[in-house]
Write a structure and sequence with these properties.
heterodimer, A: about 120 residues, mainly beta, seven-stranded mixed beta sheet, four-stranded antiparallel beta sheet, about 0% helix, globular, B: about 110 residues, six-stranded mixed beta sheet
């Protein structure tokens, strides 16, 4: 098993550009989510999904889109990048909430800079 | 007020000391996670708790559902334990995972 694969690791964008952060897991997890991590703020939820075809907004969804067409993939799209979106992004997955012994698995992170 | 509060925010201790990090939450939960993040590194899951206590090596995690409180203990701390420790809860209300801001631990040799 590869776990959670997140790409790219680093990205520099100009204001107004669009891009997609990829997240894939091979553990058949129902739950997938995207977070951004900023200094002093901790991890903040952008969007999440409890299964294929189902997505919902988190704490900071503006400027981001997601889709969940398959169980394995959960891409995050920045529609028109802004400097305020400079951050480190993490994708995570797990089995359904609350199942015993089911940990959260994280991707390795994407460091995004918007100039 | 944050729904997940961790204390302390920062902790510096000598090698060998017993470490306790606390997490309090205000929502109904189905599970609580303890995570570890080394500087510049990824995030690793240490424990998932829905009740009671779990132990893995020198790490012990406990949860009191009635009091909405969890603790992470590190026995015989070592400089390699230096990291940020993050508490996260899986909310029953909306299935979201809510994170604390983390505790930055520094163990001095």
């Amino acid at each position: 098993n590869a776990g959670v694969t997140q790409t790219p690791k680093f990205q520099v964008l100009k204001t107004g550009q669009s891009m997609t952060l990829q997240c894939a897991q091979d553990m058949n997890h129902e739950y997938m989510s995207w977070y951004r991590q900023d200094p002093g703020m901790g991890l903040r939820l952008i969007h999440y999904s409890v299964g294929a075809g189902i997505t919902d907004q988190g704490e900071v969804p503006n400027g981001y889109n997601v889709s969940r067409s398959t169980t394995e993939d959960f891409p995050l799209r920045l529609l028109s990048a802004a400097p305020s979106q400079t951050s480190v992004y993490f994708c995570a997955s797990s089995y359904s909430s609350g199942q015993d012994n089911e940990k959260l698995f994280f991707g390795s992170g994407t460091q995004l800079s918007v100039l | 007020k944050n729904e997940v509060e961790q204390s302390p925010q920062n902790l510096t201790a000598q090698e060998g000391e017993f470490i306790t990090i606390n997490c309090s939450y205000s929502v109904g939960i189905s599970a609580l996670h303890w995570l570890q993040q080394h500087p510049g590194g990824g995030i690793v899951s240490l424990f998932m708790l829905s009740s009671g206590k779990k132990k893995h090596g020198r790490l012990i995690a406990t949860i009191n559902i009635q009091e909405k409180h969890s603790s992470l203990h590190i026995t015989a701390s070592h400089p390699r334990d230096s990291a940020v420790y993050i508490c996260a809860v899986h909310s029953l209300r909306d299935d979201k995972i809510i994170f604390g801001k983390g505790t930055r631990l520094h163990i001095l040799p």
